[in-house]
Design brief:
Length: 324
């Protein structure tokens, strides 16, 4: 069986595996045509496509506020930000396609509910302050996770991350600016920001994935250079970065156990509700159904357009062949 897998390229000989690991250890990027273990390819397809789906589904919570942004300027900024997220999804689908999977297969996995996307996008955006929280906390967490991915071992993914991170950094600032404007506003506006922070803080902390002890993929992904930090390491960095920002804004983080630890030079913080997290990623969060229905509707509504594009492509190909 193993010999057959080696012959078909599904598994490597021990020499191939060793040479591959050696490349990773020497920080040599793996490119699409290079030999790679089947597990490496599958792990990348899973992570990159889940990341792409997150960007696509991630347009929905903020998209909900485009028509209701409080000024023309905020509307224009939000529109541009949401379009950026669509662009990130498209780069990432392209990066996944270099691993031999088709965009149609990946789309089908999302629409059928088989593929995961980030837990965070299953929470509702109830007020304008939630849009600020998504930029400040969700994009903030996304950057913390994606900056190291710029150095991950797979070339197309690492290069896609460079542009994505530049744009996410603008997104984080625009979110922070929305929250700043609210806390500098009336008492009601400040209360609205505090209420949104109370609802978004823990889901943002959970975005980094389960605790290291329960993270099924971390050990192998770190060995392969697909992940450069563990979930808990990045979560801690995010908390350490965000607490002073909340203090500057005059907002209180909803965690009674949050305390500076002089010995560790880091913040101690409470335990997220992991039952809630696992429930959300199983499809039972507040908005899971709504999000999938919206993506399915967009796909169905776009059928006529895809058919038109295909008909146009076929016609132009025929014309080109006839002209040769
Ligand atoms: N949500 O073994 P691990 C953004 C799953 S982009 C849902 O630790 P891994 C931009 C995981 O898939 C946000 N599922 O997994 C934006 C696995 O299940 P599986 C997305 C999660 O892959 C901002 C199981 O739990 N970013 O926000 C989550 O080693 C604003 C065991 O977990 C990325 O995707 C979760 N949070 O580590 C857009 C970055 N966490 O597949 C719009 C790239 C874990 O075996 C507006 N991805 N699971 O069935 C990564 O870095 C990693 O995949 C982690 C998870 C760290 C997310």
């Amino acid at each position: 069986m193993y010999a057959q897998m080696v012959e078909s390229g599904q598994a490597g000989t021990s020499d191939q595996d060793k040479a591959f690991q050696d490349k990773i250890d020497r920080n040599v990027r793996i490119e699409p045509r290079d030999w790679m273990p089947e597990g490496y390819r599958k792990t990348l397809i899973r992570q990159i496509s889940q990341h792409a789906h997150s960007e696509i589904v991630g347009q929905l919570p903020e998209g909900n506020w485009i028509t209701r942004a409080p000024s023309l300027q905020r509307k224009a900024i939000l529109l541009a930000k949401v379009q950026d997220e669509a662009g990130h999804g498209l780069y990432l689908y392209c990066a996944a396609e270099t691993l031999g999977v088709s965009r149609d297969e990946l789309t089908e996995q999302l629409l059928s509910g088989k593929a995961k996307y980030s837990s965070i996008f299953n929470y509702p955006t109830l007020t304008w302050a939630d849009v600020g929280m998504i930029g400040w906390l969700v994009d903030g967490a996304a950057i913390m996770n994606q900056v190291p991915l710029q150095r991950c071992s797979y070339g197309p993914y690492s290069r896609a991350m460079i542009r994505v991170c530049k744009e996410e950094s603008f997104h984080q600032r625009q979110g922070f600016d929305i929250v700043r404007a609210l806390v500098e506003g009336t008492e009601d506006q400040k209360a609205m920001a505090q209420d949104a922070l109370n609802r978004w803080w823990w889901p943002a902390i959970m975005m980094f994935g389960p605790p290291d002890a329960d993270s099924t993929h971390s050990e192998q992904s770190m060995k392969w250079g697909i992940k450069l930090n563990s979930n808990d390491e990045l979560r801690q960095k995010f908390v350490d970065q965000t607490v002073p920002q909340a203090e500057w804004l005059g907002l209180t983080l909803p965690d009674p156990d949050l305390k500076w630890n002089e010995d560790r030079q880091s913040y101690d913080f409470g335990t997220p509700d992991w039952d809630e997290f696992f429930n959300v990623i199983k499809g039972n969060g507040i908005c899971n159904r709504e999000r999938l229905d919206a993506r399915n509707k967009a796909w169905d509504d776009g059928a006529w357009f895809r058919e038109g594009l295909m008909a146009h492509a076929e016609k132009t190909t025929k014309q080109n062949i006839a002209a040769e």
